[in-house]
Structures are given as structure tokens and as C-alpha cells.
Amino acid sequence: MKLTKYEESMIAGDFGYPRQQALQQQIEVGRFFDAADFVEISQVHLMADTESLGEAGVRYLEELAGYPRLERSVCVPTITDPRGIDLCRYRALKQNEEWALLEQRAISAFESFGILMTNTCINYQIFQAPVFGAHLAFGDTGSVIYANSVCGARSNFEGGPAALAAAFTGRAPRYGYHLGKNRRATHLFTVDYAPGDLADWGALGAVIGRRTGSYWNVPALTGITSTPTSDQLKHFGAALASYGSVPLFHIDGVTPEATDIGRVLSGGLLSLPGGRITAADIKNFYSEQGRHKGKVDVVVLAAPQLSLLEMHMIATLIRGRRVHRDTDFVIATAPEVKAGCDRMGITVALDEAGVIVLEGVCFYQMYAKETARANRWKTLVSNSAKLVNIIQGYDYVPVLATTEQCVDAAVAGKI
Amino acid sequence: MTEQTTIKGHRGIGESVTGIALVAEDNFSARYDLDRVNGVFSRPAHALFGENYVGRILVLNTAKGGVATSWMLREMKSRGMAPAALLLNISNPIMAQGAAFAGLCFMDRFDGDITSFVRTGDRVAVDPEAGRVTVMR
Hints:
The complex is a heterodimer of chains A (415) and B (137).
Chain A: H1 5-11, H2 17-32, E1 38-40, E2 44-46, H3 50-65, H4 69-72, E3 78-80, H5 97-112, H6 123-126, H7 141-149, H8 160-169, E4 171-173, E5 187-192, H9 198-212, E6 219-222, H10 230-244, E7 250-251, E8 274-278, H11 279-288, E9 298-306, H12 308-318, E10 328-333, H13 335-344, H14 346-353, E11 356-359, H15 368-375, E12 379-382, H16 385-391, E13 397-400, H17 403-412
Parallel strand pairs in A: 2-3, 5-6, 5-8, 6-7, 9-10, 9-12, 10-11, 12-13
Antiparallel strand pairs in A: 1-4
Helix pairs in contact in A: 2-8, 3-5, 7-10, 9-10, 9-11, 10-16, 12-14
Chain B: E1 4-8, E2 17-23, H1 30-33, E3 34-35, E4 40-41, E5 57-62, H2 69-78, E6 85-90, H3 93-102, E7 105-107, H4 114-117, E8 123-127, E9 132-136
Parallel strand pairs in B: 2-5, 5-6, 6-7
Antiparallel strand pairs in B: 1-9, 2-8, 3-4, 8-9
Helix pairs in contact in B: 2-3
């Protein structure tokens, strides 16, 4: 890779070990993907829950935290993805003290780097949304795909260590979605279906994600006849990234690079793989993800965290009813949204109905397997196609259902 | 007599290793697919469900899902519960970033389908610097 004089100084250790080892990692990744050089980035979103970090990851952070402030401080604004535990509610979920301690150690290290503990995967709905063309190092896949597709920004999936490296160096290897040539559509889908509920949008993302099938493929959609909301695109993108590892999509007339769909199609309209997506495809997906009928142990709305508007919707749907005594209803949102909900009376309404509101976490990132055992959870209902996908590996039997069906299941205790 | 065959791939990450292969045409995510405490594939729908991957040359099709694997590979390695190497037909950035962070032997982009070239139980030598995988059977 071609290095600037500044980068050569950094790799020589002139700016301290944290930056030196970060750039070394980035060079190794850059060479792996044939990056010609680095691109300066303006913002970092760091995925680093303690379930993923483990003791080894936290020890790595603490080692870096031992360096002088000048050497260990991040050099671009850096914010965090959800944590591994909600320090205010973990005992209620029968989660153990050891995890809380690990979490506190990680937070101390991050704060010593000057990282802002936002603890959210919906940063684009709460804090500075990326601007068109901005180069970023974003972590959570849902956050990356939204920034790339809806905002027109440029980021690869930057896993925790890579995002932290970018925070220390202020740059990322220039490959993948930093390059305009890789942002053209490789697949074209004609959507002959009108998604409504957030779960429908997730199901659509899942079906297209499976058919797109690779990080290096970009789907474009035609046939979306109404302008989606931010929450709908959030669920669509999160599922697309989850089922297909896809970091970018285009929607004809909706996303900024596809105001003219012809501009984003590689090789012409007829030559692209993809095909039609019909209501039958979505119905089949629901059937595949919803075989369980009967008692529901836990209803979860998360992945991505809920926006203020989603929180308000759930409070409205459950008003005047209570969660069934044999079922738990768990919602995860961002701390800033929770504060807004507290102020606007939404949290009180949810509390009165028996809903457990978690902040700064996301369900699958908070020791979901061990928490399931402690709470005797097996059957799980969610409106998140992403969560339904992930949680299968954690010994749950998940069911994808619409938002209204989720609330009804929580109240009835069954589906 | 042992027969050796070699396949070329893109220059990889990490040190050379030799080990016994565990192969499937399925895809891979440490978060989605593994019981990392016990070192087995835990996702019922995965082709390697129930198989122990620790110390194996793990050969799969492509990376899937989220970003957590990039932390997890180092954590798994620190407890001696990681595969010896990971070979994919095509990687996403997360696997490469995780391998670089963990110092795990990792390669992709071979001259053919790596999940067909290597069979479960084969003895395999991986040289990521040279971009070369040798199967001994």
C-alpha cells in the first residue's frame, strides 16, 4: 500500500504504540483486499459488546488504556454500538455480576480513549446522520448499510478491532465501498409486493439478502411504490445485511444514488441476476420463520434498537392491556431515546403494561444464550427478521410476526 | 503413499499451519453458528451442526452476518478454542479484520471451489504468505 509521510511516521511508532499497532492491522487488511492506499474518515461507529470482546478483548483495551493520553486518544469522533449488558436492569434479567464487571472494565477503557458511549445501533436516527459521500468507519452492519444506502455515505463493514483502529489512525484502507466502481448494482429485483409492517420490510430484506448472497454484491430494487419511512428502511437494511452480508442497496427513486436507476446498474438492465419478488416469496419466508404455535416465553422487539416513533407505537398498541404473567416482553432502545420516552410519558405507559424496557443494549448482544437459560426462555416472537436469524444459534425457537401480532402474543402469552 | 495436490489463492493473513480439515459448502459467522464455549457448531440449520471445530482447518463457502466475528476470533484463540485456520471461497472484511486482529491463518479467493478441493479429514498445509493450500491424502 502507498503510505503518506504521516502514515510512515505512524507505522514507525512516532505517535505511540496504540496508533502504530492500529495502522499495522489496517495495512494487513488493506493488502488482503488490494487497497492502493488509505482514505481519511470523518466518523467511527464502534461495535464492541463484551459478549464478543470476552476477557481477551477487554484485556487488549486495558493494555491500550495504559498508554499516555496523547497516544491513546481517538483522533476522529467515535461513538459506540449497544453494550453487552444494561447496568440498570441486568439483575432483573438474572444476568450475573461477572458480566457487569467485564462491562464496566470495557467502558472505563473506552472512556479513557475519548470515545462517546452512545451505546446505540441507530446512531443515524439519533446523532449526526452521515452526509452524502462522507467516508466513514462504521461497525454495526445495520448502521453501515443505512449510512451507505439511505445517506449515500461510504463505509465497509468495520468490525470492532478495525473500527477502533480507524479511530486511532483517522483513516481506513481504501477498498470495497469507499470506491465508486463497487457501488453499482450487481443484482436487480422487481418487487411485486407492498410491504407494510416493519416485519414485512425485514422479510423483504431477508429474501433479497439470501438471493444476493455476498458482501461484494449490490441489489437494486424497482417496484417500491410508496416512500418508505426511516424505520422501514432500517429493518429492511438490517435484514439484508444479516441474511446476505450485504452493505449497500439501491431503491429506484428512493435512495440518493438511485434517483435515476439506470445510473447504478452494472452492464445494463437485462443482464443482471435477481428477478421478481412476490407476496408468495414473503409468505413462504414467514412460514419458514414461524412454525411454532402455542405458548410464547418471550417477545422481543430489538435488532435494531427501537426509535422514538417505534416506542410510541408499542405504547399505543399495548395501552389498556397487560403482558401475560407467563411471558416476558422485552424492548431494547438507545439511551437517548429512553430519555425522550421518560420525558414524554412513554416509558411509564410501557412499565404499567409490564414491558421490560432496556437501554443501551440489543437483545442478541447481551449473553442471549445464558440469559435464556436463566429465565427459561425458548420460544421467542419478534418483528425483527434480523433477530430471528441470529437467535437460532442461541438455542431459541423464534417466530417472525408483525408488530401488532407481537404485542398480542405478549398479552395472550401465546401465538 | 501420500498424494499431494496444491491450489493457489489470494495472499492471506497469519502464519503457516498444518492440520485436519473440516469442510462444508455452508457459510460462516462465529456469532450465528458457534457455541464458542464448547467449540462446536450450534446452529441447527448449519451443515456442520454438532461438529467440533477446535484446531481444525475450517473450510467453508463465504462469510455471513454481522461484525462480531472480528472480536470473537481472538477471544476464541486466547482460550485455545479457535480453528487452526479458516479458508473461504470469498471473505467479507469482517473475517479478514478478525484474522488480522487474532493472528489467525486465513485465506480466500482460490483458483477453484475450496469446499470441493478439500474434503473433511484431509491433512492440509496452509501457507497464507505464498497464497497456497496443499492437500495430503
